[in-house]
Each structure stands twice: as C-alpha cells, then as structure tokens.
Amino acid sequence: MHKYGSVKPYFAIDSAIEKCYYLGVGVTRQRMTPVVTAAVTGAFLLQTLMPVASAMVEETTGETPEQPTYPTLTVKMTAYNALPGQTDDTPFTTSIGAYTNTDIIAARSKDLADELPYGTVIEVVPVSTSSKPDVNCGRDVVHDQIGLRVIGDAMNPRITNTVDILLDHKELVQVGKIKRNPAKAFGMCKNVTIKIVGKIDVKKVKNMPKTQEELKLALEQSEIKLDENLAVNIK
Fold first, then answer.
1. Which of 42, 95, 119, 233 has the greatest number of CB atoms lying within 10 Å of its CB?
2. Span 185-207, pLDDT tens digits
3. Secondary structure of the chain: what % helix, strand, coil (to 5)?
4. Which of helix, strand or coil describes residue 86?
5. Pairing of strands 162-166, 105-108
6. Exposed/middle/buried for 221, CB within 10 Å: 0-12, 13-18, 19+?
7. Nearest 5°: phi and psi at 168?
8. Predicted TM-score (pTM) of this structure
C-alpha cells in the first residue's frame, strides 16, 4: 500500500479542483471559497462512494432462494415389529399389500386417514432441547433408524391420533447397559411433530422404494402435490 494511502483521495480532489480551472469554470486556488471547496469535495466523494453504496444495497437486498414450507401434525408415536402378536395374521404384508419394509414403512391410526393417506411421506421433527422430557419416550435412542417414512400400513381401529414406525427387531439399540429391541426402546411418545414432505404413488406396491435413498428419489420425482388440507388424492 502507498505510504500515504490514508490520504490518497485528496490528491484526486486536488486534481478535480485543477480541472475546474482549466475547464474555464473560473475557480482558482486563490479564489476558492469554503463553500465552493466543499461542493467540489462533496461531488468527488459522492462519485467515488456511489458504486460502493450501490454494491452494498445489492448485497443486502439480493433475493435469497425461497425455502419450502411443509404442513405439520402433532401426534402420538409408537414403534412396532413385523412379528406375530404385533400385527394381524400377515406380519410380512401391510394393509396396502406392500412388504413390511423396516427401512421405510410407517402405519397410522384410522382417524388420520384424511390427513395421512397412504403414500404420504413424513419426517419426524427432532425433539427440542427446551421441551419437557417425556419419560416414556425413547425415540432419541432409535432416531438413526427412522429417517423418512411412507404411510403404508394401518393400526388397530381402537387407537387414535398415532403414527407407528416399523422397526427391525434384530437391529438392537443400546439402552444403558442393555441392548433392546428398538420398538420396545421407542416406547410411547406424546406430542411428536411430523412434517408432511410429500407423497408417492403406492398403487403399484411392487414398485415401492426399498431403501431411504430410493424413497428420497421417488419423492423428488413424484408429481403428486399436497393440497391445503394435507390429504392428497392419487392421480
């Protein structure tokens, strides 16, 4: 940097004043009044700072990508296994005829059929650190096994306002010093917020996604849109 860098603009101001003289403005160094000097100096600084100010305005008012918003529901949440005693007499087939895939399937209570029709894809919102602890809820222990879920099964008609996550009973989780079935470790969770992130076509159950990656891809490619009432009709 020039050793006089902090006062360098004044050389430019001096040149501007000289230029006024040569252009016949009739302003000389001897006849420069404080008012004229201020006017010339102000004009120069304004011309110098305008591009900077303009850039700052563009930066602060630049458009940012619009973030998607998703409808939410507050429900009770449990977990289950595809085992006799926890399902009907067809533990490996869901109520829509799909395979009981522990990587993507979730069931919902009958009273949520309008809000969560089959094919709805949900995401479980993490527990807020400020929330009051739910002593019967162990979903933090199995959070890594949940991911996105597609509604593809139904619960017993007696149960209300509940979403049931299908988990693999062989994927044991550590609870204290004991390894437990993830569905039992999950327990009963109250006031769980779920985001409804989309919907996929589940009419052809053989074409249903098999993994989290396939479910995300199917969701991106789906042309089925959510309506204002959360429920979505398959086209």
1. 119
2. 999 999 999 999 999 999 989 89
3. 30, 25, 50
4. coil
5. antiparallel
6. exposed
7. -85, 120
8. 0.68
